[in-house]
Amino acid sequence: MGQMIRDIMTRDPCTLSTDSTLEDAARAMREYCIGSILVTGKGAELCGIVTDRDLVVRGLAEGRDPASTTLGEVCSRALTHLTPDDDVDNAIKLMAKKGIRRIPVIEGNHAVGVVSLGDLAVARDRESALASISMKSPNT
Question: What's the angle, vertex CA 106, arms to CA 103 and CA 107, rounded to 5?
């Protein structure tokens, strides 16, 4: 078997509840230099993902109040997910098939990590342009 997701995923992903606001998410993204947050429901079960683009397109562009609009209102709920024991090659195929850039990694119903397109690029070819970009410190 090839390389496993557990070997390349970002562990302990940032999570916020469905009741958290767009402002809460924006602040967390700034603080942790990230572009997505996993959204949890009752019992800390994973129920969605929200990206910086979601905050803009589903929130601000629709005239929603960032202080009162909840992540539950704007997050993507139809999630594709992986487990830590999944194979990296399968993750690459899944991202390509679904056209997604980030996949939550779960054990049971709880998030234990996230794997991004950049993580996969670094794992497969550290010399590629995407890997080089992904390894740089984010602009803040």
Answer: 160
Q: What are residue 105's DSSP bridge partners?
A: 82, 113
User: For residues 113 and 5, is the Cβ–Cβ distance under 8 A?
Assistant: yes
Task: Give CA–CA dist 22/16, Å, rounded.
Answer: 10
Q: What percent of the chain has pLDDT over 90?
A: 73
pTM for the predicted model, two decimal places: 0.85
Q: Domain 5-135 has what CATH class?
A: alpha beta
Angle at 136 between CA 131 and CA 140, to 5 degrees: 135
Helix axes 117-124, 88-98, angle to 10 degrees: 140
State whether residue 60 is helix, strand or coil: helix
Alpha helices by DSSP H, listed for 5-140, are 22-32, 52-54, 71-74, 88-98, 117-124, 129-135
